[in-house]
Amino acid sequence: MLLGSILLGALAVTAFQPVQASILAQIPTGSIPTVTGTPVGPYITVNSDQDQINVRALPNALSTKLGVLLAGQQEPAKGKYGGWILIVYPGVSGGEAWVLGSLVTLSGGDVPVVEPPPTMTPLYTNTIDPTLAAQFIVTIGPTRLPTFTAPPPLVIPTYPTQAPAQPTRQKLPIGLIITGLGLLGIFFGLISFIRGR
Description:
By secondary structure, this protein is an alpha+beta fold. It has a domain at 43-107: SH3 type barrels. The chain has helices at 2-15, 130-135, 174-196; strands spanning 43-46, 52-56, 65-70, 74-81, 84-88, 96-100, 104-107.
């Protein structure tokens, strides 16, 4: 057991010793260009209030979306047109794309006004099937306009004058008859109520 722990200790000491490696330096075969602080030129920076902005193929909000730029991202600017800025955008055809100028900050100088590329021809054109359209075409035949017909002459009736009314004999007012019958009904109702007790 003692021999096993000694052997294990010796193995642990040799396993954790630092390894020495010789450093072989390579001699450059050509001139190495030095990095100098050349001016960057105009560039855009995506405003920090935007999470991301769209990069489009043309200076138009309805044109093809090529990608996005994130907040704070910087790209070289090449020109402007209207409210749009032309930037260098590698990975797309032509290496250029457009961003909306109100969403970015232009720094490093002014950029020239450039003409946008012509709009691309669509891959297909929407057409209407004439057979289908013919089903919905309603032809309305000519209608004859109504002609003016004069109204018949207005006849105003005339009434003969009435002779003065003959005095009629006095009649009993209907309200008095109704009131009398109502009182009579109440009287008989009281009598039947008293008899029912």
